[in-house]
Structures are given as structure tokens and as C-alpha cells.
Amino acid sequence: MTMSTAARAIIIENDHFLVMKRAKQGVEYYTLVGGRVSDGETPEQAVIREVMEETGLTVTSHRLVYTEKHPAPYNSQYIYLCTVAPHEQIGLLIGSEEEVLNRYGMNMHAPFWVPTHNFAKLSFRTPQLQAAILKGLKSGFPSEQPI
Hints:
The chain is an alpha+beta fold. The protein has one domain: Nucleoside Triphosphate Pyrophosphohydrolase (Alpha-Beta Complex). Strands 1, 2, 3, 4, 5, 6, 7 and 8 form an 8-stranded mixed sheet that branches. It has helices at residues 43-55, 97-103, 127-139; strands spanning 5-13, 16-24, 27-31, 33-36, 59-68, 76-84, 108-115, 145-146.
């Protein structure tokens, strides 16, 4: 199995953190918005596309803050601190992979804002990433740090 790469976004607005609630094979958990980097796409292009598909938000700036290397078949991840254009609400784009999966009741996806003070309480998919983000929330996010 080939190794793939994912790009994910840390988006914080008005003391709220954007997360994706997932339900997959009977397990509920939280993760960052984002997903696989497509062939011919850079991680930066992928994070912009994934944020749009999963939330309808337009990324206006992004800065790589963490890299997570995993052995195959798991995704290596590039985590970007992003800002987004002014918006009304968030939601999956109609026709996106996530919206189609939701429609068929498979691998549910639900983006939502959680108060930053509640982020530590979430059942987050990767505890080491959650710990790094909590540290970043307290003391500022680094420039491209491995986790």
C-alpha cells in the first residue's frame, strides 16, 4: 500500500476552534478539517480545497506549523494554521466526498465550532496532535515543528 499525505487546518475564530466530528465504523471522534493531498496537488493547495469542501470557508492565509510523519499505510500530515474570509455559517459543500458519504449514512462528517477552552475535552483522533495544539493555544504556534 502506498503512503499518502494529508493536509489539515487549524482555524480559530472568536475563541472558537473549528473541528470535524466524525462517526466511522461505529466510533465517534474529532479531527481537524482537511484530508488527502490529490495527485499533482501541493499540501498548501489541498488544505485550501479541503477547507472549502468540508466547511464552505475560503482560506485567506496559511502557515505550516506541524508535520506528523507516520509509517505506511497511514497518512503523513501537514498541519496549517489558517485564517478564513468573513463568512456566515459553515457546512459541507453539496457534492463533496464528505456530503455524499453523509447522504448515504457512511462515515459521517459534521464541521462545527467548539469553544477553545473545551478543545482539551474532545475525543481527538490523534492525542499527540491534540497535545501540540493545546500547547500552541497557550504559547503560540511554532514554525513547522515535527510532532
